[in-house]
Amino acid sequence: QQQLVESGGRSVQAGESLRLSCEPSGKSASSVVMAWFRQAPGKEREGIASIAPLDIRMYADSVKDRFIISKDNSKNTLTLRMDSLKPEDTATYYCAADYVPGGGWLDSTSYNLWGQGTQVTVSS
Question: What confidence score (pLDDT) does residue 30 get?
């Protein structure tokens, strides 16, 4: 059974940095495109960063120039480097895989495999 396991979330102060990781558990979750999403209480799940072959990256405007997504293709692990964190970045962060060809890279309906999420809390 394929699973994704996120880690690295914790409480930090505004301006600090965090590094989130996403690793496959069980059968390797191979996916052409992988992505990070986040969901704050009372809000819809938001696609914030995706990575495709040839290291093509896409970012939401809300995190552009602050977050960096990367992937270790040998292990199929995904990383999200988050700098200059703001209170509005507070959310549960999810990684996604098993991309459906043709879907939007930051569209949650484009992925069939999700992790359980890791909580990031940013205090002012």
Answer: 64
